[in-house]
């Protein structure tokens, strides 16, 4: 059975990271090979091979019967011109599927297994179904610490790894990371100017918001370009010592990005996956020293101290084995950090702190100084305990602000958007003391108001835990560009504004020493 | 933010059971709503709402900027005409996702949880990722027996349920089912004529082959139409007492079909899922009495007797609670049943048995009599132990053959294809006794030869376990229509023909009493 010659045709459908091949139902290959919709296939052309999922097409405008349509992702990966001849075959399952099945059956995976799985995932040879199976089978405490170590190692090996030594010599490459879950909390945008002003190297790449109302990349983008090609980014780091850029283009730990695309819709973020994800990205990005922030609170990702300690030990074990200097700080995650929630409002908070504005949110300032101080103590010339003072001096002297301006200039300055035209004040329904707040609820209200797609949208907090309020006093102000967004956000806030007002004595004391 | 008016456009892409919506990247809705590729959306038109996954399109020939493209499945489910106005919004996760997350976290699900999950799955509100997560989280022994009971109940409730009483009165509606894994084994095509000739009601719907070289529906289709609309099927059952039809169109336990589309690529078939799948289909199809065949063997689905006993008890518990009379038979699954593997060759075996041909495969004949005998004993007028004799009398008298001819006529007779033009003989490489055979290997070789897409393809066994062979003696003959298929199958058979030849004393005795 000789296949008729098929010609590659680009089908302008963006399937995100999934390779899709389109064949017309009347194409003789469909019947001869017994292809069905969603068959897994391999496409070969010009010595290149990709895996894809098949969609059967009934419309010749999409694919004529003797063409082989490829989605944008598949076309890019195959890398041949339109009209090139190609072959399509049933795909054998990728070799590591046997390991996946063993993990589903509850077995422990070895180093080679995990390397094979990550190589197949990074090579786009896993379907969404197989990815979801891996994520669920390695969820919770299903991975022991050596499996997490090997998973991290395998994620790094399956992508690019930046070596800053050509640019920076053997100086430490420092970074900070927060496991997330707390609105506001834009400490990275303060920490990078402070530690690079101290002379350290901090090439910080951040994510955009996915389920939150703002990511560091979204917030920096209010003021500067963040989508920088790797060579520009390296030039900026050589010039200024750092950057605050979007990390999405660098092919660092690509298997992690692919797994995240499945973990997110399932809202799965297990300890093992979190450790492998964060540490693989940092090590692949060339970091040698890392300060890691684990906020703890009733509506944070980590809810109890024992859970935080367990997670901390897992991070320390894996980092230690992979030669990354790690300092874990367990911080107070009971409420948002700073006042603004949303890119423009968070950028305003950051600039107030950098300008030593007396109106600046003190919680954001203190937390940033404390994190930057620990990073500065990675400098072998700095004595233990001096970091915080050095960080404060850099901030108060205006050197951090000057350094931020230099970073903005180097990355490319952008004009911030005008403040949001529409506002709505959410008021305390009763008098009392603010005893708790639901971070997830505030984040959801901010997203409905339009953040982060609308950078000026979000909410601006007027109160903190422990404050005593009168009935009718302002809790926070909603900002929106569009009436419909404001109406949605307002509706949600009116159903439950996220704050619990109670008696003054019932306030929980802040957790740990980190938050203040 | 008022959405511009979108018009529905049918996009001729068969995405199998997945609803896909296509929007052009320049459609203002994409930016305004912050849609990305693979966003989950709801589409509303004319009071109908469906869930879909979004694909972003760059080609106006597929979807112009103010149209809302829908894949075939989505278009069918929404049920409005092309050009109808529609709205698209971010989808809230289906309500039962909270239950899914609890199951992923290892919790037990209650009756209401499982009903909610199955209703959402049957309503196409789960993405492939969420389906895979459910399948993995309920894999192995993750479901206790009450969860399996409630899952079964929920699968039935989420679809149609046939009530045969209007057609058949209160007579038992009998069925038989094999959990699968053994090539050949076409007992259903013998059992249905025998028990309906006895006067029982046996409206048998079967599946097509998915991973095997032939299903009962594929084999019956060699001789008769099997894709019958429900009203024709009911008329045939009224007339003849039974049918041997394809069950794919009946909307019986549709959540099960959707879950199977995910279980299959993962090769997951856990006890709980198997029990819920089989029993939900049988009860939804209106069966009141069921004989269930569990073959046990080293390369069967169930590999050990204790495993078979455990599975038997689970089937019995759930069937008992749901009012289904169940008889489980554990049978010998060490080797294929009958000689042929592939639709035409298996149909030949069946007809040889019905014709009382001395060449008929005795193992197939004995197993069918034994199963039919147990089914006949569901008849309250038959004494325990008489069933086998009654079944044998029906077969030997030619009444089973006459009944099969009546079924073929009623369903619509088809002319069988000509025998395969290409053959290749696989010979014993050494002399000795056949001590074991790999069912999976034989199935794979038969599939490569073209079965079931090419009904005359497959393989024809010349030997059985325990036979003594000479070097060069025929083990089996490959049949194919196409040279390339024959070459592939031959290559696989030459690498390993599936049979182990050893010393005469090492043959494993058959398991249980069932197989002979």
UniProtKB/TrEMBL annotation, chains A, B:
InterPro entries recorded: Glycosyl_Trfase_fam3 (IPR000312), Glycosyl_Trfase_fam3_N_dom (IPR017459), Glycosyl_Trfase_fam3_N_dom_sf (IPR036320), Nuc_phospho_transferase (IPR035902), PYNP-like_C_sf (IPR036566), PYNP_C (IPR013102), Pyrmidine_PPase_CS (IPR017872), Thym_Pase_Put (IPR028579)
Originating organism: Inhella gelatinilytica
Signal peptide range: none
Pfam family, one: Glycos_transf_3
GO molecular function, one term: 1,4-alpha-oligoglucan phosphorylase activity
Gene Ontology CC terms: cytosol
Lineage of origin: Bacteria, Pseudomonadati, Pseudomonadota, Betaproteobacteria, Burkholderiales
One GO term (biological process): pyrimidine nucleobase metabolic process
Keywords: Glycosyltransferase, Transferase
Entry protein name: Putative thymidine phosphorylase
